[in-house]
């Protein structure tokens, strides 16, 4: 019985020991019994005391709040050290307590409060009431933060992104909180906006394609094409960052929360008056705003722009880039050719404001006018001569020389030669000017044979005797009479019976303007004379001989 009582007592004793002796590695309650040398002495029960540095009772950047008699929770690291004191830590107790609290918040997706207290590589450290978390630089704000100084030490909410108790890692975000509140704010602002509404906004950012405008917590995009009715090359031409402007809400996308804004919609559309203001055929002054490969855009007034197509730029410069004819910002006179109100297009003409140079040339240079110009080009069919008014005239091969073949005559000319010619034809519609070099001294052949017709009898000079006939000259024009045409009588068809310098009467059998030759015949003259004599004096059948008839005819002619 006594043994049983002893065992019970031992068991009770052990139980009371277990109850009163805290377990190492756990959080225990203790009482501050003294504060000395920057440490708090804490009684954790069972006659165990430990020391804790006062700074462990302070939040980062704050003074410690601790007094004798305060009850605190500490972490018992060891029951006894070399000095017989308990090894305790307030910081570790706070950490354990914080981890429990943070794990619950993480599971509930709840916000936690903390303060940024240090800067580390890639971000910042945050005290979450005992546990230290990492705040990546990208998670500090919605936009990159250059100076995080003002955020240090401030108690503010964070969202836990990741946590691992075993490794002691916690990653938090301040940005997620801001985005959430921003989304709520956006939704509220967007809810109060409607399409067509006019609102005030502040220009927040300017890009090449437009500007972002803050409408009070929500941004809208004002596209460059909606800033003004006129062409705007860059938004900075008409807007400045920080400027307050009036805009109209054009479109709201409820899903993406994107807002499109416009400024020009608040101004009168100049296109409403274009038809009345710019009648077809009217000429107006405009400013060249843009030059492309296919033409130039000319602003008639702010918001009304027309295109001068490359084909309407110059009468003479056909295959030239528009930039060689006009330059940006140049003032030009243009004619309205066409208006398409639906497509908001005006077709303009530049050359129409100047007279057609071919018309002017035709008026000032009638056919037969002598001109002078430089050989611009030589082709297989003739020469191109530069004329006044920046136009060209063409001398065809056949108009180069009276005496030489065109193919031979063209060899006498080189590019850059200054030549004289006569205007032979101007075709305004086809924009063609025909010139003649051979006509410069007039047409000698035409002048020489002006009164000569087929059948005429003319007197020629013999200039050469050849085997096949004789060469003769009439008014400077050479011709050849073949042997068979020298006489009606065969025995007289001998060239040697003529001498150079002889004057001979011949009959014209052909006038060929193309080859510039006269067909001549002594034989034809004799036959014609005989025929005429017979008609006048009767036929040889009546008894009179041909000699008598001719004799009579000659006598009467004397």
UniProtKB/TrEMBL annotation:
Keywords attached to this entry: Repeat, Ribonucleoprotein, Ribosomal protein, RNA-binding
Pfam families reported for this sequence: S1
Domain S1 motif: 25-91, 109-175, 196-264, 281-351, 368-438, 455-523
Recorded superkingdom: Bacteria
GO terms under cellular component: ribosome
Keyword Acetylation: no
Family: Belongs to the bacterial ribosomal protein bS1 family.
Function field: Binds mRNA; thus facilitating recognition of the initiation point. It is needed to translate mRNA with a short Shine-Dalgarno (SD) purine-rich sequence.
NCBIfam families in alphabetical order: PRK06299.1-2, PRK06299.1-5, rpsA
Name recorded for this polypeptide: 30S ribosomal protein S1
Organism of origin: Ruegeria sediminis
Lineage, uppermost ranks: Bacteria, Pseudomonadati, Pseudomonadota, Alphaproteobacteria, Rhodobacterales
């Amino acid at each position: 019985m006594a043994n049983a009582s002893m065992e019970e007592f031992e068991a009770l004793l052990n139980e009371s020991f277990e109850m009163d002796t805290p377990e190492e590695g756990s959080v225990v309650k203790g009482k501050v019994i003294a504060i000395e040398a920057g440490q708090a002495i804490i009684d954790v029960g069972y006659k165990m005391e430990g020391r804790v540095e006062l700074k462990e009772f302070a939040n980062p950047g704050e003074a410690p709040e601790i007094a004798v008699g305060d009850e605190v929770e500490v972490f018992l690291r060891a029951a006894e050290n070399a000095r017989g004191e308990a090894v305790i830590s307030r910081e570790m107790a706070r950490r354990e307590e914080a981890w429990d609290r943070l794990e619950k918040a993480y599971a509930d997706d709840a916000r936690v409060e903390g303060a940024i207290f240090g800067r580390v590589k890639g971000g910042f450290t945050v005290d979450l009431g005992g546990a230290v978390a990492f705040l990546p630089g990208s998670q500090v704000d919605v936009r990159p933060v250059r100076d995080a100084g003002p955020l240090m030490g401030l108690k503010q909410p964070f969202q836990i992104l990741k946590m691992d108790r075993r490794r002691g890692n916690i990653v938090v975000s301040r940005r997620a909180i801001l985005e959430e509140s921003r989304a709520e704010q956006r939704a509220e602002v967007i809810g109060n906006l409607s399409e067509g509404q006019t609102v005030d906004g502040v220009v927040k950012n300017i890009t090449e394609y437009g500007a972002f405008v803050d409408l009070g917590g929500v941004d809208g995009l004002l596209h460059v094409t909606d800033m003004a009715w006129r062409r705007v090359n860059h938004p900075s031409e008409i807007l400045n960052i920080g400027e307050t402007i009036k805009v109209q809400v054009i479109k709201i996308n409820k899903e993406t929360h994107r807002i499109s804004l416009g400024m020009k919609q608040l101004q009168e559309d100049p296109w409403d008056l274009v038809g009345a203001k710019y009648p077809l055929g009217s000429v107006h002054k405009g400013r060249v705003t843009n030059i492309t490969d296919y033409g130039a855009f000319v602003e008639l007034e702010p918001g009304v722009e027309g295109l001068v197509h490359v084909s309407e730029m110059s009468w003479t410069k056909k295959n030239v880039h528009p930039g060689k004819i006009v330059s940006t910002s140049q003032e030009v006179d243009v004619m309205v050719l066409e208006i398409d109100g639906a497509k908001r297009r005006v077709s303009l003409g530049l050359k129409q404001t100047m007279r057609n140079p071919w018309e002017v040339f035709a008026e000032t240079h009638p056919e037969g006018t002598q001109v002078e110009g430089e050989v611009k080009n030589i082709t297989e069919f003739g020469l191109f001569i530069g004329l006044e008014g920046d136009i060209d005239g063409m001398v065809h091969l056949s108009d180069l020389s009276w005496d030489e073949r065109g193919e031979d005559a063209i060899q006498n000319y080189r590019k850059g030669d200054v030549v004289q010619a006569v205007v032979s034809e101007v075709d305004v519609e086809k924009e063609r000017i025909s010139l003649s070099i051979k006509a410069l001294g007039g047409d000698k052949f035409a002048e020489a044979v002006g009164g000569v017709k087929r059948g005429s009898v003319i007197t020629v000079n013999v200039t050469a005797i050849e085997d096949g006939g004789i060469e003769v000259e009439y008014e400077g024009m050479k011709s050849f009479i073949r042997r068979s045409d020298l006489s009606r009588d065969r025995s007289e068809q001998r060239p040697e019976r003529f001498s150079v310098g002889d004057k001979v009467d011949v009959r014209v059998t052909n006038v060929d303007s193309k080859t510039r030759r006269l067909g001549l015949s002594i034989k034809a003259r004799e036959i014609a004379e005989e025929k005429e004599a017979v008609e006048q004096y009767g036929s040889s059948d009546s008894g009179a001989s041909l000699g008598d008839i001719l004799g009579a005819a000659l006598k009467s002619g004397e």
